[in-house]
Amino acid sequence: MKAFLIDRYGRNSGRMGDLPAPEVGDHDVLVRVHAASVNPLDSKISQGEFKLILPYSFPLVLGHDLAGVVVRVGSRVQQFKPGDEVYARAPDGHIGTFAEQIAVNENALAMKPMNVSMEEAAALPLAALTAWQVLVETARLKKGQKVFIQAGSGGVGNLAIQLAKHLGAFVATSTSTGNVPWVKALGADVVIDYKQQDFSSALQDYDVVLNSLGADELEKSLKILKPGGQLISISGPPTPQFAQAQGFSWPLRLITGLLSSGIRRKARRKGVSYAFVFMRASGPQLREIATLVESGNLKPVVDRSFPFDATAEALDYVEQGRSKGKVVIKVHSGMADE
């Protein structure tokens, strides 16, 4: 099968190649990939930024998100059958959606929302699961609470705004000048143009901050939280709780604790909590998300689509950080397996 892969870590190291068809385990579902979306995580993995915590072997097929059609199921799979249209975020350790086929554990899969295309469905999993695991699972965001979502025009940000509004929250976000009207249309109550305004001086008494940017923004976020508020970061630094959940070795746990010791200490002084969320695959949560999509409460946003043989260009485009919503790769056309 055709796949986009890397043979080593490094910038611009990806190439198109041919690999054997995936092996299908007892609990696996073989999916013919129709569309896959690109995430900043794909470039970070290809450059080796996660090699300590995600030790992949080469050749490594990149890609985390997919939408496609079930070709075959393992002997113990009960939830899916050939011909089902599905979507998923492939589990860590078993990524590889930039390929014509992939075998995915059934627990990571869900039926594709019926009212969106394959490309739109592929734009959802990683970003929507991240928003869900931050706002629903970790923050337990409630109606009437105030949440600040950084980078509202990004892949995670646009879905987080929609989800927070569905949950009944008051939403503030940040974006560049040209995207202000667009994120307002998504439902944001307050939009900070970061080129004109500093969010830390414009906002106050927030219950939750979803941080997706750098160290400066992380520390500034403490200033806008009320006592008892929650600072939740998807861009780091990781916490000892995360290291323990991942089963890291003792030295790596120590390093992880040191990385976040500063922000955790400052959060305690402020009377708020700090948490790090590293999104995990979840079929059950994708089923919840599909329900929101089918009811019109969550709408995938596709900035641009690339053909499969232009995957390297798609990765470069995402690295520029200017996309509104998600960038999608069209792997197969047509709605049925051939």
Please specify the SSE layout and strand pairing.
Blueprint: E1 2-6, E2 14-18, E3 28-38, H1 40-46, E4 60-61, E5 65-73, E6 85-89, E7 101-105, E8 109-111, H2 118-122, H3 125-138, E9 146-149, H4 155-166, E10 170-175, H5 180-186, E11 190-193, H6 199-202, E12 206-211, H7 215-224, E13 225-233, H8 240-246, H9 250-270, E14 273-276, H10 283-294, E15 302-307, H11 311-319, E16 326-330
Parallel strand pairs: 9-10, 9-12, 10-11, 12-13, 13-14, 15-16
Antiparallel strand pairs: 1-2, 1-4, 3-5, 3-7, 3-16, 5-6, 6-8
Task: Please describe what this structure looks like.
Residues 10-329 form the Enoyl reductase (ER) domain. GO terms for molecular function: oxidoreductase activity. Pfam families: ADH_N, ADH_zinc_N_2. This is NADP-dependent oxidoreductase. InterPro entries: ADH-like_N, ER, GroES-like_sf, NAD(P)-bd_dom_sf, YIM1/Zinc_Alcohol_DH_Fams. With 338 residues, the protein is of the alpha/beta class. The chain has 2 domains: 2-123 and 300-330, Alpha-Beta Complex (Quinone Oxidoreductase, Chain A, domain 1); 126-276, 3-Layer(aba) Sandwich (Rossmann fold). The protein is built from 11 helices and 16 strands. The protein has helices spanning 40-46, 118-122, 125-138, 155-166, 180-186, 199-202, 215-224, 240-246, 250-270, 283-294, 311-319, and strands spanning 2-6, 14-18, 28-38, 60-61, 65-73, 85-89, 101-105, 109-111, 146-149, 170-175, 190-193, 206-211, 225-233, 273-276, 302-307, 326-330. Strands 3, 5, 6, 7, 8, 15 and 16 form a 7-stranded mixed β-sheet that branches. A 6-stranded parallel β-sheet has the order 11-10-9-12-13-14, sandwiched between helices. Helix 11 (311-319) links the parallel strand 15 and strand 16. Helix 3 (125-138) packs across helix 4 (155-166) and helix 7 (215-224) runs parallel beside helix 9 (250-270). It is globular and about 55 Å long. The mean pLDDT is 95.
